[in-house]
Amino acid sequence: MTLGNPVRFSDESDRPVIMIPVKLDLRDNQAFWRRNVFGIPKRGLLGWLFSKGSRAARDYPWVVGGNPDPGKRTRPFQVARGSVDEVLYNITDKLVIGTANGSEVVEVAFQHLTFVSGPGGVCDTASDMGLEERISESLASTLKGYFDPTIGVRVDCMVNPSLPASQLNMYLGQGVFVPRRGERPIGWIRYYPDPSRREDYNQPHLLDGRPAGLYKGQGGLVIGIGEGLLHAQIDLGSDEEVQSPFMFITREAVLTPVDEEPRGGGVDARLSFCRSDGNEPVPTPVARTDEQCDVAWKIDFVGTAQIPGRLELCVDSRKSRLHWKPTTSCNAAITSLLFDLRDFSHRDVDRVWIDLDRDNILTAYALQVARVSLVWDCENEEQYVYEWGQTGAPFKTPGSVGLKCRMIENNMIEVGRADGEPFGYLELPEVPEKVIFSDTFQSFSGYHLDWLDQCGRISFGDTVLSLGEAYAEKCSGMPIARFEPGEPRKVVGPLVLTPYEGG
Prior knowledge:
Structural class: mainly beta
Radius of gyration: 24 Å
Number of helices: 6
Shape: globular
Strand content: 25-35%
Number of domains: 3
Helix content: under 10%
């Protein structure tokens, strides 16, 4: 398989995490990411036979090389060796894109990489040396065109005290997410050993102490459980030995049918544990207990009498978050999206793209799956609709998917729901706050609408800006507060807000 090629299935991209352990000679560790020391699955017949017949590969399918003990030798036909960019060319993620003939699955590079060494190893002084930035810039140049440029290649370097100095572990996969240095999480993940004691909970952390989740744009997380192998860890508070090496939270690959079990809030997330032969935790979806929690699971431990634990996830704990269903604090409804092309008069707009979930609510978080996308082609003044669960070509009748779209005065485009219901709900502040559209300013106080980046994009020729970023220059800093009596509506960036009194 090759980056950029259409694919239908890839063994590696379906793994939540892949760890590649290597030994480095500390006397020659400069630019280690360019050295041919990293394991790559062997291609061809012998590689296929090994993957089918090796017990190690069955027991630890998440580790390239088959065995989590990097001191053990690999078999002759188990792996090839290459540099980090060769790893990213061979172990790929999948991206679904829209085309004139329908959707297509394309191989792309994983954009989040974590390197972990022992004390005194290559990662021990990474921040002081600017190592993470150098690796990111090098890989971004090598892999240009095979990843989302609005995200870039993100690299973390951390230290695990249990590893020797010469040991280096590389992590990639759908469950590996690298927050920017200094970035603050927007949500949280909490594990309650005893659900009745709400003040007593544990949270997953990265090896350097930062929270492992939940950050803007995070669509998955792999968490180690007491094994010391992974870059993120959590204590499940079990007195019994837990054999499962890790658990992972990932976005569902496909939408759950509407008539099946309802999801928590608008989140399409699932919780799983690595297959094990011992006391494996078993998660079961349960009802939410507070307004901030978006999805929750009860966790039983097989073969013990322990009280079932509870894992809860909140995708955004900020007051400026998008709500799928109104709460008692919601006082505004997003009745439509209004795009005034004069806001971008310094450049020509080619297309406006909006993603909606299965309930026709804006997909404001990475743990939501887009059911439908509406595209406005400005040059031809035409609209297109993609239904991602279907294989047919895009069509031009948004009404068939419950949307309405119109153009006003040749420069304003308005999108709404055909049933008149909102695209979501907001809690506007009591006193005026500055609106912030870009996550570059997360350290500033204000009313953050940077989640717009997850639900739409605007293209200007070869330049594509996410929706929040597109409005950041013009609209960031404008004040916003709750509705005054008699005030019929507010326009904030692309959002048309009306008072909501049903909470």
